[in-house]
Amino acid sequence: MTVAAPAAHADSSACNQAFADVPGEVEYNGNGRDVNLPATLHGKKVHLKNGRAFNQSYATVDNPSRGDIISIDRATDSDKLNTTKKWWRTDEIRGWEYCQANTDSKWRTPTMNNWHRPMRVCLRHNGALQCSNIWYADQS
Predict the structure, then answer these.
(1) pLDDT tens-digit profile, the chain (140 residues)
(2) What is the pTM of this model?
(3) Would you call 47 exposed, middle or buried from its count of C-beta atoms within 10 A (0-12, 13-18, 19+)?
């Protein structure tokens, strides 16, 4: 699903480079709707990885095309900064920040702290941005 991002802003301080790979994959079955994780964006599988014990997440993409940009969004709404709700939809999120990576150099984003903060994955392909419509907030 293509989602406009009027409230989003880049914030490089939100990106962490120091964390190694995190172990788990977040999965959600939306029964064929646009709320599945891993998400299918531009025909490619995009995964949300969750560190659980380290409170870190990042996005990966399977078989990206040259020039693709993968990103991970994190909600910035004040009422989402310590949420106990696990699953959110895009229409419930008003603002977010993101980290991104060009897939020519790596197939994953930097990590972002995810503790009780809704996160989603996005992929920009040929200039068009698509994002998952489901957001996951780690509760561990």
Answers:
(1) 444 444 444 455 677 765 555 567 787 777 655 568 899 999 999 999 887 566 788 899 999 999 999 999 999 998 888 888 889 999 999 999 998 988 876 788 888 888 888 999 999 999 999 999 999 988 76
(2) 0.83
(3) buried
